[in-house]
Amino acid sequence: MPRIESTRRAALMLCGAGLAAPFIAGRAQAQGVTLRSADVHPDGYPTVEGVKHMGRLLQERTSGRIRIQVFHSRQLGDEKDSLEQTRLGVIDMTRVNTAPLNNLVPETLVAGLPFLFRDTGHMQRTMDGPIGEEIGRACLPHNLVALCYYDAGARSFYTRAKPARTPDDLRGMKIRVQQSDMWVAMMRAFGANATPLPYGEVYSALQTGVVDGAENNFPSYLTARHFEVAKHYAMTEHSLTPEILAMGKRSFDRLPRADQEAVRQAARDSVPHMREAWVRMEGDARRQVEAGGAQIVDADKQAFAKLVQPVYDQFVRDDRLRKLVERIRAA
Ligand code: GTR
Fold first, then answer.
1. What is each CA distance from 113 to 140, 218, 308, in whole angstroms?
2. Does the predicted model carry a pTM greater than 0.70?
3. pLDDT at residue 16 above 60?
């Protein structure tokens, strides 16, 4: 089934379910609300498990009045589609990477900038604190209420023909990136040609040679089965871009204030659960792709890091973003 058609069908199905019905104006408590949340990853993936955990907390804390149903495995389309549906109020929540938000909310691109976060701890402290809050607030005028950030490990290159240990190896290769202008510029800086594609199209693009490679963390490399068609994984670790869980402002505004707070709190409280699942899966995924024939090699990270200034020059131009980057570096 063509992607767009299946997405529209899912959206119609959800509308038909009468999303707005349980929210009764004037009531202090929402009654019998099921929040629909989208994810591109399969059941069991740490992001899906994080949102399910949030749902369990919410259900307990509201005596079953508010629940979450997770539509995993791209049932509601790729990330751009689910973001759009969330902004429009067709679905209530979506878990996406920060990258598909970059063109809409420039503050989010800061979180994906190459070699900005020093390590996972630095990323977590930044995103869980005032800087993450500021980035989240910037989503509000676009009808998105940022609830929390999840881990996505480090992204590295994987390629079909030979490993991308250095920028020279990568030169001229067509590399799939997420749909973000900043990510396109990052590939240009590394000497590659960027091909922006939705996640769901990457496997066949790799298989047919439409692209020479892509980049992602181990859990995605495994679960999307990209390791079957691009076997050379080089540890460039060029970005620690985190995930974001966002609720549509329309759905959020329909909830009474106390329930809004319960939603925010449950999201925050789901983060440690997600991160534990993440750590487990990152190690498992690495072992599984190796067992499946992937060749993991070290890369010359310094050589890649030396090339990123043009990305900063192009995208961190205004004062607001410059200050964010400075504060992140100083943290
Ligand atoms: C994954 C991320 C997804 C999506 C995907 C991609 O690591 O969890 O949200 O961004 O990468 O590359 O499209």
1. 22, 19, 9
2. yes
3. no
